[in-house]
Amino acid sequence: MGSETAQRAATQSEAFPGELADALVRVQRLIRRRLRDGLSVPRMRGAEVELLRLVESRPGIGVSDAARALHLAGNSVSTLVNQLVRGGYLLRETDPADRRAARLLLTETAEKRLGDWQRRRTELVGRHVSRLDDADREALRAALPALRKLAAGLHEEAEEA
After folding, report:
1. DSSP labels, the chain
2. Could you give the CA distance from residue 65 to residue 146 in angstroms, rounded to a whole number?
3. What's the distance, CA 87 to chain centroid?
4. DSSP string of 107-132?
5. How far apart are CA 31 and CA 35, in angstroms?
6. CB proximity list for 143: less than 8 A, separation 6 or greater
7. Which of 46, 110, 149, 160 could form a disulfide with 106 if both were Cys (CB 3.0 to 4.6 A apart)?
8. pTM to 2 decimal places
9. Burial profile 120-157: b = 16 or more Cβ within 10 angstroms, e = fewer
């Protein structure tokens, strides 16, 4: 009986990383789909939103630093930058310290769109979290530090690669 319990615990432990990854992907996918509903502007690709969010958090970041932070090829980020500049979401300014380099800044249009997206995301997730019972809400709250550490570890590993 004891070995059967140990075997079941080991199997559950082995399954946990996959189950966690599946749950996180599913939640993220459903949030993205729900936020796309009712958009009056053309949908942005995930990489475009990631770049805008990065520029929002690090105004003036250069293209090569953005590529490193997003773990994308420099030419891919350059293409995204060109698209977002044409779309009116990014400003590309010459770096006064290095005239060959560009610094990226959000336009007012991008700031409004990101602000709207963040507000809608907070409302959506808040509405669904409020439907959970107290124990489930507390379990999610208690899991946040571990999820942040998991994200930091994944980020560090990507930086080393």
Report:
1. -HHHHHHHHHHHHHHHHHHHHHHHHHHHHHHHHHHHTT-SSPPPPHHHHHHHHHHHHSTT-BHHHHHHHHT--HHHHHHHHHHHHHTTSEEEEEETTEEEEEEEEE-HHHHHHHHHHHHHHHHHHHHHHHTS-HHHHHHHHHHHHHHHHHHHHHHHHHHH-
2. 27
3. 21
4. -HHHHHHHHHHHHHHHHHHHHHHHTS
5. 6
6. none
7. 110
8. 0.75
9. beeeeeeeeeeeeeeeeeeeeeeeeeeeeeeeeeeeee
Short-list 92, 93, 91, 89, CA closest to 112: 89
- Is the pLDDT confidence value at 30 over 70? yes
* pLDDT tens track for 78-125: 999 999 999 999 999 988 888 888 899 999 999 999 999 899 999 999
pLDDT reported for residue 101: 83
Residues 4-29 have a mean pLDDT of 80
How many residues are there in the chain?
Answer: 161
| Tokens read off for 38 | 């009712």
Position 52: which residue type?
L
What distance in Å separates the CA atoms of residue 24 and residue 80, rounded to the nearest whole number? 26
